[in-house]
Amino acid sequence: MSRDGHVDLAFAGATRRFRLAIGDLEALQEATGLGPADLLHRLHAGRPYRFRDLRDILCTALIGGGASVGEAHALADKLDNLPCLTVIATATLALAAGLEGAEDETVGRWMRPGPARPEGRMAFAPFYEAAAAMGLPVADLRAMSLWQFAAYLDGFNRAQDPDAPEPMTEAEEDALWAWIRTETAGAQNVDRA
Asked: What Pfam families has UniProt attached to this entry (predicted)?
Protein backbone atom coordinates (compact mmCIF):
# COMPACT_ATOMS: atom_id res chain seq x y z
CA MET A 1 0.00 0.00 0.00
CA SER A 2 1.15 3.56 -0.55
CA ARG A 3 1.01 6.78 1.40
CA ASP A 4 -0.89 8.55 -1.36
CA GLY A 5 -3.48 5.78 -1.65
CA HIS A 6 -2.48 4.43 -5.06
CA VAL A 7 -1.82 0.93 -6.31
CA ASP A 8 -0.60 -0.11 -9.77
CA LEU A 9 -2.34 -3.22 -11.09
CA ALA A 10 -2.52 -5.20 -14.31
CA PHE A 11 -6.01 -4.60 -15.63
CA ALA A 12 -7.62 -4.88 -19.06
CA GLY A 13 -4.34 -5.62 -20.83
CA ALA A 14 -2.14 -2.94 -19.23
CA THR A 15 -0.70 -1.85 -15.90
CA ARG A 16 -2.94 0.90 -14.62
CA ARG A 17 -2.81 3.22 -11.63
CA PHE A 18 -5.78 3.22 -9.27
CA ARG A 19 -6.07 5.88 -6.55
CA LEU A 20 -8.82 6.91 -4.18
CA ALA A 21 -8.12 10.19 -2.35
CA ILE A 22 -10.54 11.70 0.17
CA GLY A 23 -12.54 13.46 -2.55
CA ASP A 24 -12.72 10.21 -4.54
CA LEU A 25 -13.92 8.27 -1.49
CA GLU A 26 -16.60 10.91 -0.96
CA ALA A 27 -17.70 10.61 -4.61
CA LEU A 28 -17.70 6.81 -4.37
CA GLN A 29 -19.89 6.92 -1.28
CA GLU A 30 -22.34 9.19 -3.07
CA ALA A 31 -22.40 6.91 -6.12
CA THR A 32 -22.87 3.64 -4.23
CA GLY A 33 -24.77 4.77 -1.16
CA LEU A 34 -22.33 2.71 0.91
CA GLY A 35 -19.42 3.77 3.09
CA PRO A 36 -16.10 2.85 1.49
CA ALA A 37 -15.02 0.69 4.46
CA ASP A 38 -18.37 -1.12 4.46
CA LEU A 39 -18.06 -1.67 0.72
CA LEU A 40 -14.54 -3.09 1.17
CA HIS A 41 -15.80 -5.39 3.90
CA ARG A 42 -18.62 -6.59 1.63
CA LEU A 43 -16.15 -7.40 -1.14
CA HIS A 44 -13.69 -9.10 1.19
CA ALA A 45 -16.28 -11.09 3.14
CA GLY A 46 -18.38 -12.02 0.13
CA ARG A 47 -21.38 -10.11 1.51
CA PRO A 48 -23.94 -8.78 -1.00
CA TYR A 49 -22.87 -5.96 -3.28
CA ARG A 50 -23.90 -4.88 -6.75
CA PHE A 51 -21.85 -5.23 -9.92
CA ARG A 52 -22.50 -1.52 -10.38
CA ASP A 53 -20.51 -0.96 -7.15
CA LEU A 54 -17.47 -2.63 -8.74
CA ARG A 55 -17.87 -0.42 -11.79
CA ASP A 56 -18.07 2.69 -9.61
CA ILE A 57 -14.99 1.70 -7.61
CA LEU A 58 -12.90 1.00 -10.69
CA CYS A 59 -14.06 4.04 -12.64
CA THR A 60 -13.50 6.41 -9.70
CA ALA A 61 -10.11 4.87 -8.84
CA LEU A 62 -8.94 5.03 -12.45
CA ILE A 63 -9.83 8.73 -12.67
CA GLY A 64 -8.15 9.27 -9.29
CA GLY A 65 -5.10 7.48 -10.68
CA GLY A 66 -4.84 9.84 -13.61
CA ALA A 67 -6.94 8.26 -16.35
CA SER A 68 -9.18 10.59 -18.29
CA VAL A 69 -12.89 10.44 -17.55
CA GLY A 70 -13.52 9.04 -21.03
CA GLU A 71 -10.85 6.35 -20.69
CA ALA A 72 -12.11 5.31 -17.24
CA HIS A 73 -15.71 5.00 -18.45
CA ALA A 74 -14.63 3.13 -21.58
CA LEU A 75 -12.76 0.59 -19.45
CA ALA A 76 -15.66 0.32 -17.03
CA ASP A 77 -18.01 -0.34 -19.95
CA LYS A 78 -15.88 -3.39 -20.85
CA LEU A 79 -16.09 -5.04 -17.43
CA ASP A 80 -18.58 -7.63 -18.69
CA ASN A 81 -15.85 -8.98 -20.97
CA LEU A 82 -13.31 -9.46 -18.16
CA PRO A 83 -13.05 -12.42 -15.80
CA CYS A 84 -15.28 -11.79 -12.79
CA LEU A 85 -12.55 -12.61 -10.25
CA THR A 86 -10.19 -10.12 -11.91
CA VAL A 87 -12.80 -7.38 -11.63
CA ILE A 88 -13.57 -8.19 -7.99
CA ALA A 89 -9.88 -8.48 -7.01
CA THR A 90 -8.92 -5.25 -8.76
CA ALA A 91 -11.78 -3.30 -7.18
CA THR A 92 -10.95 -4.74 -3.76
CA LEU A 93 -7.24 -3.87 -4.02
CA ALA A 94 -7.95 -0.36 -5.32
CA LEU A 95 -10.38 0.33 -2.48
CA ALA A 96 -8.05 -1.15 0.15
CA ALA A 97 -5.17 1.02 -1.08
CA GLY A 98 -7.30 4.13 -0.68
CA LEU A 99 -8.42 3.23 2.81
CA GLU A 100 -5.29 1.69 4.32
CA GLY A 101 -2.27 3.83 3.42
CA ALA A 102 1.22 2.86 4.49
CA GLU A 103 1.42 -0.26 6.63
CA ASP A 104 4.85 0.59 8.03
CA GLU A 105 3.85 3.90 9.59
CA THR A 106 0.82 4.34 11.82
CA VAL A 107 -0.80 7.77 11.81
CA GLY A 108 -4.19 9.15 12.64
CA ARG A 109 -4.74 8.02 16.20
CA TRP A 110 -7.52 10.65 16.17
CA MET A 111 -9.48 8.62 13.59
CA ARG A 112 -11.87 6.82 15.90
CA PRO A 113 -15.06 5.27 14.67
CA GLY A 114 -17.99 7.53 15.35
CA PRO A 115 -21.58 6.51 15.85
CA ALA A 116 -22.84 3.89 13.43
CA ARG A 117 -24.15 5.41 10.22
CA PRO A 118 -26.46 3.79 7.66
CA GLU A 119 -24.62 1.42 5.33
CA GLY A 120 -21.30 2.22 7.05
CA ARG A 121 -21.19 5.65 5.41
CA MET A 122 -18.26 7.90 6.36
CA ALA A 123 -18.86 11.33 7.85
CA PHE A 124 -16.87 13.77 5.72
CA ALA A 125 -17.77 16.93 7.66
CA PRO A 126 -15.01 16.32 10.25
CA PHE A 127 -12.42 16.31 7.45
CA TYR A 128 -13.63 19.67 6.19
CA GLU A 129 -13.86 21.07 9.74
CA ALA A 130 -10.28 20.02 10.52
CA ALA A 131 -9.05 21.39 7.19
CA ALA A 132 -10.68 24.75 7.95
CA ALA A 133 -9.05 24.85 11.39
CA MET A 134 -5.65 24.16 9.82
CA GLY A 135 -6.12 26.57 6.91
CA LEU A 136 -5.92 23.71 4.42
CA PRO A 137 -7.67 24.52 1.12
CA VAL A 138 -10.56 22.21 0.24
CA ALA A 139 -8.93 21.20 -3.06
CA ASP A 140 -5.79 20.12 -1.19
CA LEU A 141 -7.86 18.15 1.33
CA ARG A 142 -9.81 16.36 -1.41
CA ALA A 143 -6.56 15.44 -3.20
CA MET A 144 -5.03 13.80 -0.09
CA SER A 145 -5.23 10.14 0.80
CA LEU A 146 -6.61 9.29 4.23
CA TRP A 147 -3.08 8.43 5.37
CA GLN A 148 -1.69 11.76 4.14
CA PHE A 149 -4.44 13.71 5.88
CA ALA A 150 -3.92 11.78 9.13
CA ALA A 151 -0.16 12.52 9.01
CA TYR A 152 -0.86 16.20 8.24
CA LEU A 153 -3.31 16.47 11.14
CA ASP A 154 -0.94 14.66 13.53
CA GLY A 155 1.81 17.13 12.62
CA PHE A 156 -0.51 20.10 13.04
CA ASN A 157 -1.61 18.88 16.46
CA ARG A 158 1.98 18.31 17.60
CA ALA A 159 2.93 21.80 16.42
CA GLN A 160 0.04 23.31 18.38
CA ASP A 161 1.09 21.61 21.63
CA PRO A 162 4.62 20.17 21.40
CA ASP A 163 4.59 19.30 25.12
CA ALA A 164 1.42 17.21 24.91
CA PRO A 165 1.88 13.62 26.02
CA GLU A 166 2.07 10.96 23.36
CA PRO A 167 -1.27 9.21 22.83
CA MET A 168 -1.69 5.77 24.33
CA THR A 169 -0.64 2.87 22.19
CA GLU A 170 -3.25 0.33 21.18
CA ALA A 171 -1.80 -2.12 23.72
CA GLU A 172 -2.07 0.52 26.49
CA GLU A 173 -5.68 1.23 25.51
CA ASP A 174 -6.51 -2.49 25.58
CA ALA A 175 -4.89 -2.85 29.01
CA LEU A 176 -6.81 0.15 30.35
CA TRP A 177 -10.15 -1.22 29.08
CA ALA A 178 -9.36 -4.65 30.56
CA TRP A 179 -8.63 -3.01 33.93
CA ILE A 180 -11.85 -0.95 33.76
CA ARG A 181 -13.89 -4.07 32.98
CA THR A 182 -12.27 -5.94 35.88
CA GLU A 183 -12.86 -3.06 38.30
CA THR A 184 -16.44 -2.59 37.13
CA ALA A 185 -17.17 -6.30 37.50
CA GLY A 186 -15.61 -6.26 40.99
CA ALA A 187 -17.72 -3.25 42.03
CA GLN A 188 -20.89 -4.96 40.78
CA ASN A 189 -20.07 -8.08 42.81
CA VAL A 190 -19.56 -5.96 45.99
CA ASP A 191 -22.89 -4.18 45.41
CA ARG A 192 -24.69 -7.53 45.14
CA ALA A 193 -23.20 -8.87 48.38
From this structure: Phage_TAC_11
